[in-house]
Structures are given as C-alpha cells and as structure tokens.
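In response to reviewer comment 3 from the previous cycle, which asked for concrete evidence that the modeling workflow produces usable outputs, we include below a single protein chain processed end to end. The sequence was submitted unchanged, and the resulting structure tokens are shown without manual editing.
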Amino acid sequence: MKKYLIIAGLFLMFSISVSELYAQGEPPHPNNGSDPGSGNTPVGGGAPVGEGLISLITMAALFGSAKLMQNFIKENSETKNK
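The workflow returned the following structure tokens.
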C-alpha cells in the first residue's frame, strides 16, 4: 500500500509541475495586428512554397523509382534461379 501511495504522490507532483509549462500567453499576431493587405509582410511571411514543392515531388519520384528498381531486380533474380 505504501508503494502505491508513493507512486500516486510522485505522479501528482509531476502532473502539477508540468501543468505550469502550459501557462503561456498567446503568440503575437503574425502581421503585428494589422490586416494582410495593409502593406506589411503577408501572413505567411512570403515563404517560397514552389521550391519546396518541387523538391518534395523530386524526392518522391526518386524514392518510387528506387523501389521499382529493387522489385525489378528481385523478380529477375528469382526467375533466373528457377
């Protein structure tokens, strides 16, 4: 019984101490409180999405072609062994 009380006490202390980490204020508005079209930077910060999309598609195509090549080599080696 004493073991369970110690575990429950440690759990309670840990949960109370971790709950203080969640007591944070809201982050500031990404555009200093103004509308996106008011001359400041856009809400996204003007991040270049196009280059990331191209690299993602390129990596996916390379990964897919590597998997196809592995399957092709595996199937050819199985047919040669028969």
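Residues 51-82 form one domain. We consider this sufficient to address the reviewer's concern, and the full set will be provided in the supplementary archive.
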